[in-house]
Design goal:
single chain, 94 residues, 4-stranded antiparallel beta sheet, two-stranded antiparallel ribbon, elongated, Large ribosomal subunit protein uL23, Ribosomal_uL23-like, rRNA binding, structural constituent of ribosome
């Protein structure tokens, strides 16, 4: 597949709290399926994936700039991935 499946990890308070329970959140391609996401995570991070839940955040209109011009923010697909074996080091230890 030519497009990128895993775009970036989600770094929020909710995502860091879920990481304690071996659940990691990633922004993924809108066209990616659960099997493609599973294969990408297992090959890139070298962990065993238990389950995947997917949500789509709908895009909305934001007003930007000095003249407050409306701009459309695109939809985002977020995959919540439960890891059974091992862990992913996404967040630095404090």
């Amino acid at each position: 597949m030519t497009n990128i499946i895993l775009k970036s990890p989600v770094v929020t308070e909710k995502a860091t709290a879920l990481a304690q329970k071996n659940v990691y959140a990633f922004i993924v391609s809108l066209l990616a399926t659960k099997d493609q996401i599973r294969n990408a995570v297992e090959s890139y991070y070298g962990v065993k994936v238990g389950s995947i839940r997917i949500t789509i955040r709908k895009g909305k209109v934001q007003r930007v700039g000095k003249r407050m011009v409306p701009k459309l923010v695109a939809n985002k697909k977020i995959a919540y991935i439960t890891v059974t074996k091992g862990s992913i080091s996404l967040f630095p230890k404090a």
